[in-house]
Design a protein that fits this description.
- With about 350 residues, this protein is of the alpha/beta class.
- The chain is built from 10 helices and 14 strands.
- The strands form 3 sheets. The chain has a 10-stranded mixed sheet. Strands 1-2 form a two-stranded parallel sheet. A two-stranded antiparallel ribbon has the order 7-8.
- Strand 13, helix 10 and strand 14 form a beta-alpha-beta unit.
Length: about 350
């Protein structure tokens, strides 16, 4: 027997065709979409304004495969890491990060990651698969509800900086974000959504050409080719000059600056040479630099830099009139900080 598809994987034309074939009025399509993408329904029985016989037809053809929260860890700083179980037994993770007056959700786009960045826990455990649009959407729904429950407010920001490379699953990412940001559905402002990438020039140019409405963050970590290729092996396929040209094209086309993420690794990329190279590299496109101190991962050789190293690096950037900030790490005590997601959550209910 052929497995049913998750209804959130089909396009709206297919849904319209099924509604018509079932002898239903065309407005049923809109009702189904509202239940799926506005109300976050996870079962057919929730769809009370849809006749039971049509719901039976829907359930005979399609499934709804919601994420299940398999575990939660809570940091001393209030950060919460959630382990999500998918229908096939694979896992991914999301993080809820509270701060003064706002709450940010960090979500994943893949189960595992194929890029295997040397400093990152996620890639060390292999790549399982891309997430479906509904699995990306569910992370937002669940973390938004958790924000309301624990912080008393909905999410303020959404960042796709969890497991995986969003541009290697871009069709699912764009579909999920489309429903999250659509005024017709969740109406979450695109300006408060950031998509992070290691930098795939072709995909960045395509995004710019398609009027990509979201913020873009580049996980650069070094602008010296031999250093970047060592810590991000996949980057060897995307030359830095080509990536720089794509960034410049994106900022010209969208009129939006790019956030350059720079993870500081002791003895690897904290030298004056690195700072000088970074200033030169980012001067070719509109950017703001976000420095992040490394969160150590058991079993990996990288270390957190000393505070004076970080301060000197940041001071040099500011001396050269770069827009640069140092991001405070959250959730490192539960392995929820940048580079630490690895499906190792303790199952705390």
């Amino acid at each position: 027997m052929q497995a049913k598809n998750d209804i959130r994987n089909i396009n709206e034309d297919e849904l319209a065709g099924f509604v018509d074939e079932s002898g239903e009025k065309s407005y049923r399509k809109g009702q189904v979409l509202d239940w799926l993408w506005k109300k976050g329904a996870v079962s057919w029985d929730e769809m009370k304004n849809i006749p039971s016989d049509f719901r039976k037809k829907l359930s005979g053809k399609y499934e709804i495969r919601p994420l299940e929260v398999a575990g939660t860890e809570i940091s001393a700083d209030g950060t919460r890491k959630l382990l999500f179980r998918m229908h096939d037994g694979n896992f991914t993770e999301g993080v809820l990060i509270p701060s003064a007056g706002r709450t940010t959700a960090c979500i994943s786009t893949q189960a595992g990651c194929p890029l295997k960045c040397a400093f990152c826990a996620t890639g060390q455990h292999g790549f399982k698969r891309n997430l479906d649009p509904g699995e990306i959407f569910d992370q937002f729904i669940l973390l938004n509800r958790l924000s309301a429950e624990t912080a008393g407010r909905p999410l303020s920001n959404l960042v796709l900086m969890g497991m995986g490379e969003p541009f290697l699953n871009i069709s699912s990412v764009l579909k999920a974000l489309g429903y999250i940001s659509s005024p017709q559905y969740l109406n979450f402002s695109p300006s408060r959504i950031t998509v992070s990438t290691i930098g795939i020039p072709e995909k960045i140019i395509q995004a710019a050409d398609s009027q990509f409405p979201y913020q873009l963050a580049l996980s650069l970590h070094s602008s010296i080719p031999e250093v970047r290729n060592e810590i991000i092996p996949a980057a060897s396929r995307y030359p830095l000059q080509e990536l720089q040209q794509a960034m410049a094209f994106f900022t010209r086309k969208t009129q939006k600056p790019i956030t350059v993420e720079f993870l500081l690794l002791k003895g690897v990329n904290t030298s004056l040479r690195e700072a000088e190279s970074l200033v030169k590299y980012c001067s070719r496109f509109s950017s703001k630099i976000n420095l992040i101190t490394y969160n150590e991962v058991p079993g990996l050789p990288f270390k957190k830099p000393a505070e004076d190293e970080v301060a000197q690096f940041l001071a040099y950037l500011k001396k050269k009139n770069m827009v640069a900030t140092l991001r405070r790490s959250m959730g490192s005590d539960i392995s929820a900080a940048c580079g630490q997601l690895a499906n190792r959550s303790k199952l705390v209910k």
